[in-house]
Amino acid sequence: MGLQNGEPLIHDLNAHRHLNVVINGEVKGRGAVPRDYDVQPPETFSPPSEIKVYSEQELREIIREKDAKKSRNSDILRAAGIRSMDQGQFGYCWGHSVVGAVQGARAAQGLPHEDLSAFAVCATIKRGRNEGGWCGLAMQFVREKGVPTVARWPQGDADYRKYDKPEVWADAKTNIVTEDYVDLTREVYNQNLTFMQALSCLAQNFFIAMDFNWWAHSVLGCDPVDLSNADIRDDDSGKLITGPQLVAMLDVTSGFGVRDRNSWTDSYGEQGFFVLTGSKAIPDGAVAIRVVGAAA
Amino acid sequence: MSRRLPFPVACLFLFTLAGLARAQDLKLPTELQVSRGRLAQVVIESKGAETSWTIIPPKLDAFREYDPDPKTIKLRVLAYTDGEFYLVASTAVGNKVTQAVCRVVVGTPPVPVPPGPDPGPSPPDPGPKPDPTPPAPAPIPTAGLRVLIVEETANRGQLPPGQADVMFARGPGSLWEFMRAKGAKDAAGNPELRVFDKDRNLSADPPHWQEAMKRPRTSLPWLLVSNGKAGYEGPLPRTTEEVLAIVRKYSE
Question: For chain A, what is the HEC assignment?
Answer without folding.
Answer: CCCCCCCCEECCCCHHHHCCCEECCEECCCCECCCCCCCCCHHHCECHHHCCCCCHHHHHHHHHHHHHHCCCHHHHHHHCCCCCCECCCCCCHHHHHHHHHHHHHHHHCCCCCCCECHHHHHHHHCCCCCCCECHHHHHHHHHHCCCCECCCCCCCCCCHHHHCCHHHHHHHCCCEECCCCEECCCCCCCHHHHHHHHHHHHHCCCEEEEEECCCCEEEEEEEEEECCCCCCECCCCCCECCHHHHHHHHHCCCCEEEEEECCECCCCCECCEEEEEHHHHCCCEEEEECCEECCC
